[in-house]
Fold:
Amino acid sequence: MKRLEALFEGNPIFEIQGRSKRLTTHGEQLLAHARLILRLNDSLWKTMAQKNGPGLIRLGAPDDYVYTLLPNILERYAKKFPRVEIEVTCEPSEGLSDLIGRNALDLAVVTRRPNDDVSRTIRLEPIVWATAKGRRFSKSEPLPLAMFQPGCVARAKTIEACARVGLAYRIAYSSPSIAGLLSPVRAGLAVAAIARCSVPADLEILAEGNDLPEVNGLDIALMRGGSSEHPHFVQHLADEIHASLSLL
Structure:
């Protein structure tokens, strides 16, 4: 703001009113023109994309986030940039972080790992216990669990929660994909502690008080690669993801 005011010396942008600032007449004119410039900038990029062929964005996310969090985001983005190609990579968060580090992806929606000083949380997603509707397990035997593969943050949080309350359990099924994890749950063979957004309608979320421990939620973060051939398109998608996930 100080740099802007220096550029327009003699025509202040703000005026003091009590303990706050408000725009002057010149400031209001500047704001109106700035918004117009941004709209023209977006229009120019859309036109260039249509004339010069589609851009490409390399997006990564675990498959459960792809199924549940991204569809509406991709739909809205496609309406703004219908010719931009989005290449989606489904991998666990650990693998996606590695791809971002090697600049093999432009953006990645990931579960933020402990002590991660690179990514920033944009959404806290609760973890809930899911089972086949009406299915309950005997308390006299270890609880059969379906889990993601070792290294998964949700898996570690679930094991910690069970240990905290002394719940006897056994890992009955393990899979790197949400489809592989939910298959035995649907069959009534196991229960799973997963992100609430990943629970399909045909499964039941167990209410609190079912002798199951509370599992700490997941920090969902957006990571960005070091460079891209189409940074404008990438930034628009990043903004769309950030705004949408923050509001859910």
